[in-house]
């Protein structure tokens, strides 16, 4: 009696991780157009982190950076989306 090896399951093709184009565009905008806002946010974070007790937050700096980033990105996203 012959014993046949069980058929190997078909190899699954590796799926490419999809990259959201908006993430890439936003990163480019921060680096190219909003670097000054990022610098201000980083300075604020450093200042707040260096203190034990402070009421200061960096919310305004964060909002400014996000506003700049999204304002830049919205112009680019429609050029790249089909």
UniProtKB/TrEMBL annotation:
<dbReference type="Pfam" id="PF02320">
    <property type="entry name" value="UCR_hinge"/>
</dbReference>
<keyword id="KW-0813">Transport</keyword>
<dbReference type="GO" id="GO:0005743">
    <property type="term" value="C:mitochondrial inner membrane"/>
</dbReference>
<keyword id="KW-1015">Disulfide bond</keyword>
<keyword id="KW-0472">Membrane</keyword>
<comment type="similarity">
    <text>Belongs to the UQCRH/QCR6 family.</text>
</comment>
<feature type="domain" description="Ubiquinol-cytochrome C reductase hinge">
    <location>
        <begin position="20"/>
        <end position="82"/>
    </location>
</feature>
<dbReference type="InterPro" id="IPR023184">
    <property type="entry name" value="Ubol_cytC_Rdtase_hinge_dom"/>
</dbReference>
<keyword id="KW-0679">Respiratory chain</keyword>
<feature type="compositionally biased region" description="Acidic residues">
    <location>
        <begin position="10"/>
        <end position="20"/>
    </location>
</feature>
<dbReference type="InterPro" id="IPR003422">
    <property type="entry name" value="Cyt_b-c1_6"/>
</dbReference>
<feature type="region of interest" description="Disordered">
    <location>
        <begin position="1"/>
        <end position="21"/>
    </location>
</feature>
<feature type="disulfide bond">
    <location>
        <begin position="44"/>
        <end position="58"/>
    </location>
</feature>
<keyword id="KW-0249">Electron transport</keyword>
<dbReference type="InterPro" id="IPR036811">
    <property type="entry name" value="Ubol_cytC_Rdtase_hinge_dom_sf"/>
</dbReference>
<feature type="disulfide bond">
    <location>
        <begin position="29"/>
        <end position="72"/>
    </location>
</feature>
<keyword id="KW-0999">Mitochondrion inner membrane</keyword>
<comment type="function">
    <text>Component of the ubiquinol-cytochrome c oxidoreductase, a multisubunit transmembrane complex that is part of the mitochondrial electron transport chain which drives oxidative phosphorylation.</text>
</comment>
<protein>
    <recommendedName>
        <fullName>Cytochrome b-c1 complex subunit 6</fullName>
    </recommendedName>
</protein>
<keyword id="KW-0496">Mitochondrion</keyword>
<dbReference type="GO" id="GO:0006122">
    <property type="term" value="P:mitochondrial electron transport, ubiquinol to cytochrome c"/>
</dbReference>
